[in-house]
Amino acid sequence: xxxxxGTRTERAPAAVVERLVSLACLAPSxxxxxxxxxxxxxxxxxxxxxxxxxxxxxxxxxxxxxxxCGAALHHLQFAARALGWETSVDRLPAGAxxxxxxxxxxxxxVHHAVARGDIDLLRTRCTDRRRFTAWPVxxxxxxxxxxxxxxxxxxxxxxxSDAARFRLELLANRAISFLEVEGRRLLEQDRWxxxxxxxxxxxxxxxxxxxxxxxxxxxxxxVLEDTRLVIHGGERVIALGGDGDDVGSWLRTGEAMSDxxxxxxxxxxxxxxxTQPIEVESTRHEIARTVLTSRFEPHLxxxxxxxxxxxxxxxxxxxxxxxxxxVG
Length: 328
Description:
Blueprint: E1 10-11, H1 14-24, E2 36-41, E3 44-49, H2 63-82, E4 86-91, E5 100-108, H3 116-124, H4 139-150, E6 155-159, H5 162-180, H6 183-191, E7 236-242, H7 247-266, E8 270-274, H8 276-279, H9 281-290, E9 297-305, H10 322-325, E10 326-327
Parallel strand pairs: 2-10
Antiparallel strand pairs: 1-5, 2-3, 3-5, 4-5, 6-7, 7-9, 8-9
Helix pairs in contact: 1-2, 2-3, 2-7, 4-7, 5-9
GO molecular function: oxidoreductase activity
InterPro entries: Nitroreductase-like, Nitroreductase/BluB
Protein name: Nitroreductase
């Protein structure tokens, strides 16, 4: 194929697309539900929301599902660049069913070297729920991470002042206390813990003693050991969101989350998403009104900090086999 400038454009063959999808599926997702489907037809790759994996009690609007799919979309673009390919993305294509979130064409006009370090980064990224150390993330690092959100049409703000952090902690704990009494949510969470299959969260990845000094975890205690004594207070929180609270904005925020997370991992930082305060609408509005200085709709919160040196590697969360998520 030749473009308008007379340069020959090469479409990615099916084998390359399949490899990209497998790397995209390493993306983080709510409860590790992996709520995406991929279809490849006539050189066009389509990302679809797998509504069978939506969490009706915790995520009735599909915000977290769409954020997860946005992360997978960014992972795919990141992997393509690392393998020397270019991507053209049409988000929420006109005339497509509501479940179609993006159409992507993978091609190249020149050959580029493979960035093996970036491929390793995709495989290294994980959610480490163990306590952070007391060493604070420098403000310039936080600023750099927040600026990355703008590259994807999203908004970000680091919550750094003592007053704002205290207010956010109160709101987060209030939200979790509210959610703890909703039986449908608790049953839904339990269905995704220790499933023993290719999805969900293994029990060994949940801390056995949630830290009472920080916003509580949504999950029941697990078996992940944390015997290292640390002084708390080194973590910071970044709020991610957009100008709207709709599918298009959520998709962009998911892409920004993935970009920020990968760059934090590259710098040796750890990231843990915290969506509970956003899932309670009254708390979400309070965060926007009383915590954030910028005016945007928060879609999720990210805890960012440093993990202690010398900790053993975490086991990897399982992934659905490619045959379950990809139609070639």
